[in-house]
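Many groups now describe folds with learned vocabularies. In that spirit, our science desk offers one protein's residues alongside their backbone shape tokens.
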Amino acid sequence: MSVFRSSTIAMIALTLLCALPTVSWADGDDQQPARRDNSVNILLRKELAVLRLSSKTTSTPCVNALKKLHTTQNLLKENEDDYQNPDLAIVEDVLESDFEVASERCAVDVRAICQDHKSSKEILKACAKIDTLPIDTLPEESD
């Protein structure tokens, strides 16, 4: 296994562990945080599950988007105790945007893997969980 592939798998695993729903504290109510929409986070986790199962190399745009996502996650984590900081809301918005960009960049790789007729049953099952992929583009499982 190449070094690039190993580091990509490690990065993907870290993203899966860190892809928790984001919470916004800057909405004025210091007692109850507002829950943000985490549908993009869920989609990215599903996409990363496919990438992790595949032996194909992840593209540079996907890897770069995941790196940027990790940087923003770390910045947010470093400042999570300072929930009255007005800049925290901006970092949370950037994080949400980074999740969207990572999902878009990695979706290209995922789509190629899911449309490959040589993909394993395990990969096809993971692909079927991604509701943004049209079902008619997925190859049928062969026994």
User: Anything to note?
Assistant: Strands lie at 23-24, 34-35. The first strand starts at residue 23 and ends at 24.
